[in-house]
Amino acid sequence: MNADTELENQIDRWRGYVLRHQAIATTDADEMEDHLRGQIADLAAGGLDDDEAFLVAVKRMGRVDALSREFAREHSDRLWKQLVLTAEPPDGLGRRRHELSVVIGLVVAAAATVRIALEVMPELVLVRNATLLVLPFLAVYFGWKRRISPRTAITVAAAFVATGLIVNIYPFVDDGPTQAIVAIHAPIVLWFLVGVTYVGGRWRSGPRRMDFIRFTGEWVVYATLLGLGAAVLTGLTAGAFSALGITVDTVISQWLAPIAATGIVLLAAWLVEAKQSVVENIAPVLTKVFTPVTAVMLIVLLVAMVTSGDVVDVDRELLILIDLILVVVLGLLLYAISARDPHQRPELFDRLQLVLVVTALAVDAVMLTIMASRIAEFGFTANKTVALGLNLVLLVNLSWAAYLLFGFVRRRRGFDATERWQTDYLPAFGLWALAVVIAVPPLFDFA
User: Which of 13, 62, 434, 447 could in theory staple to 88 by disulfide, Cβ–Cβ 3.0 to 4.6 A?
Assistant: First the structure.
């Protein structure tokens, strides 16, 4: 391992420790990391080697001095105890003053784009392009906030354009399954592109990927709360107008609903950034509530599937729902990992997670058996191919996750191995979605 790689690993460990202990928000960590790197560069220019420069620079980070003391106690082998001594005044790191104005401007621009698209695009084309009309604005927000390099900005922009060309140039058959498949998987590809801007272009960093996993879970929480609030407010307003004999259904469907949906995407992201410490208290609690509930549901579902007779004849809609449940299981696992301190010893919740993953594996195995039997009898279709690929991707992820969790529960390995596995495997989901968008439609003649 060369010196530059070792220095990057040390910075990643410092950043991950700060964020896991919820001392500061991710955005402040970004600014503090920039400050840390500047300190390291200055010290290295003065003749210190990378290790010495890193340790002295951390000592000077007065804002997290108390946290650094705790880190010193857990990492005494790196001589932190000798270097982390007294606090210094904070450097006044804060959020940009005009961030909300930028977000509102992007919301207005995105809403105007969606509103124009509603007028000029046919319905099926609009469905395919829905996220292409909104997520680029979210990428712009994070690109501005993280100060990404021009090279990263050009790469992400080119990827957005390429995805848009594929979605719109392919000669899809109206109401064909490949069109629906692309409409489902293109947003996943675009979300990963947003992730590249969220991590400031440092996608190769495992801790940065974990930051993005954490953000995704928190964004889902806030977007759901905002969506529910908007739905209640809209319902009350529509009821009030209805009592006055005024119909506002067209206004809601053509104006309010699309504009609100667009705003929620961007505002939820801003709220996660602005109020992160609050969400970090909510989302892990939700994860701990839904993990045992989902495990029980999966066990009941597995027993029902196995005892129902010929599983090959299971209804197609049920198979789709089961795949969605498995994706939810993966989401619960990812967010629980992102919110956990890897230095803590195994506890009851870790055992519940292991039960959840093992049960999900069993359900996935039954799903693969069903699909293999159907493919052998009726041949490949676009839907079966995509479902088979998804279940194989999930099988690999969940199998190794179960192995690592079992070792952790038995205290044979640390929890950081499970965390590394998930961050290393994360790009596989984006690559799978990209392969589906590019390859599946032509393989099945765009039908």
Answer: 62
Domain boundary among 239, 257, 273: 273
The SS3 of residue 341 is coil
- The answer to the question of residue 314 being in a domain is yes
How large a percentage of the chain has pLDDT more than 70?
Answer: 82
Structure tokens that stand for 229 in this block: 């609030």
Residue 94 included in any domain: no
Query: How far from 197 is each of 151, 273, 318, CA to CA, in Å?
Result: 11, 14, 37
Angle, helices 316-339 vs 382-409, to 10°: value is: 40
Q: Which of 312, 315, 350, 334 is nearest to 394 (CA)?
A: 334
Overall average pLDDT of the 207-232 stretch: 90
Give yes or no for a contact between 436 and 181, defined as CB atoms under 8 angstroms apart.
yes
Distance CA 37, CA 200 (A): 15
Q: Are residues 268 and 320 in the same domain?
A: no
Indicate the SS3 state at residue 58.
Answer: helix
HSE (side-chain half, CA atoms, 13 Å) at 273: 22
User: How many contiguous H segments (helices) and E segments (strands) does the chain have?
Assistant: 18, 0
98 vs 380: CA distance, rounded Å: 53
Q: CA–CA separation, 346 vs 8, rounded Å? A: 29
Cβ neighbours of 108 (radius 10 Å): 15
Please provide residue 381's backbone torsions phi and psi, each rounded to the nearest 5 degrees: -130, 170
> Is the distance from CB of 399 to CB of 361 less than 8 angstroms?
yes
User: Which residues, at least 6 apart from 225, have a Cβ–Cβ distance to it below 8 Å?
Assistant: none
Q: Which of 157, 166, 201, 158 is nearest to 185 (CA)?
A: 166
Alpha carbon dihedral 172, 176, 177, 180, in 10-degree steps, equals: 60
Q: What is the pLDDT of residues 395-427, one digit of tens each?
A: 999 999 999 999 999 988 888 899 999 999 999
Q: How far is CA 232 from CA 225, 238, 244, 252, 271, in A?
A: 11, 10, 19, 13, 20
CA distance 10 to 124: 49
Examine the domain organization and report whether 106 and 253 are in the same domain. Answer: yes
Average pLDDT over residues 11-37: 66
What is the average pLDDT across 14-42? 67
Q: How far apart are CA 280 and CA 18, in angstroms?
A: 13
CA distance linking residue 93 with residue 165, whole number of Å: 41
